[in-house]
Each structure stands twice: as structure tokens, then as C-alpha cells.
Amino acid sequence: MHAFALFNLSEFLVPGAHILDVGSGSGYLTACLARFVKNKGDHPDTKIVGIEHQPNLVALSKENLNKDDESLLSSGHVVIVQGDGRKGYPELGPYDAIHVGAASPETPTALIEQLKKGGRLLVPVGPEGGTQYMEQFDKDDRGNVQRTRLMGVMYVPLTDLR
């Protein structure tokens, strides 16, 4: 699924982009997103934000990123934060692309609101244990959103610490 996400979001992963990875877990996909952008060129405005609600995973993510390439975090191009991913992270938005690594029971409007015009959101949508679909939301230059159902999936639910 990580390869699918990288492929699906590849046109948005460009130098200077702001990317949000919701449910960033161990930091693996966040690192992949950062490297994908970095391989296309360096830009001072590039921001790859990983948001995770579990403190132990936030710490693990930072540890893993530093083991891989400490410049990812020290440069400020990659930021890992603890928080409720369902609310996104508006402080560093709006975002050119948003990836969600857990199923939202319904359309995640807070994330769509943080998407730049011309941006893309990739998110599994559906109830825990029920029918879920990977959905793509594209926001056009006027702010209109088009929803595309891509395929059936089964993800853990998007939650907070409760």
C-alpha cells in the first residue's frame, strides 16, 4: 500500500510541496515521501509532516528517521508531531497531498479543508470491520472536490488515544 500511495501521489511530490502523512506510525512512509521529493531537488519550503497519536510511535518514528538520515529532521523538511490525525495539522498546511494510513469511518472533511487547491487526498474510508474503500479526493483550482473510489481495502480505524 505504501508503493501504491507513492505512485498515486507522485505528481504532487515535488520540491517545495507540503505533504501530510496521517497515522505516520514508524515513519517509514514519511521517510519515503521525503526521499521521493528530495530526489527531485531541494527547496527551502518543502515540508513533509507525519502526524501520529501514539507517543511511542512518535518517538520510534523520530529514532528511525535519525538512523536513516538525520538531516531529514534537522533540516526542518520533515516534521513529526503527536496529535489527532483526524483533525490534520493546519499549522503547516495547506497541503499539496495528504496520505491517511488508517480508515476514516466517513469522509474526512477536516483533511479536505487542509488540502490546497489543485491537491490530492488519499484515504481509506469505511467502518471498522466493514466495507472500506481507498478513496481519492482531488481539489480543483476553484476548490471543487472530486471523489474517486479506487479499490476495496481493509485498514485499522483512524482514532485518537481514547
UniProtKB/TrEMBL annotation:
Q: What is this protein called?
A: protein-L-isoaspartate(D-aspartate) O-methyltransferase
Q: Which PANTHER family match?
A: PROTEIN-L-ISOASPARTATE O-METHYLTRANSFERASE (PTHR11579), PROTEIN-L-ISOASPARTATE(D-ASPARTATE) O-METHYLTRANSFERASE (PTHR11579:SF0)
One Pfam family per UniProt:
PCMT
Q: What class of enzyme is it?
A: transferase
Give its localization.
Cytoplasm
| Domain of life of the native organism | Eukaryota
InterPro entries, from UniProt? PCMT (IPR000682), SAM-dependent_MTases_sf (IPR029063)
Key words, A-Z? Cytoplasm, Methyltransferase, S-adenosyl-L-methionine, Transferase
Q: State the GO CC annotations.
A: cytoplasm
Transferase is among the record's keywords? yes
List GO BP terms, alphabetically.
methylation
Q: Which GO terms describe its molecular function?
A: protein-L-isoaspartate (D-aspartate) O-methyltransferase activity
Name the Enzyme Commission number(s) assigned to this protein: 2.1.1.77
Q: Would you identify the family this protein belongs to, as annotated?
A: Belongs to the methyltransferase superfamily. L-isoaspartyl/D-aspartyl protein methyltransferase family.
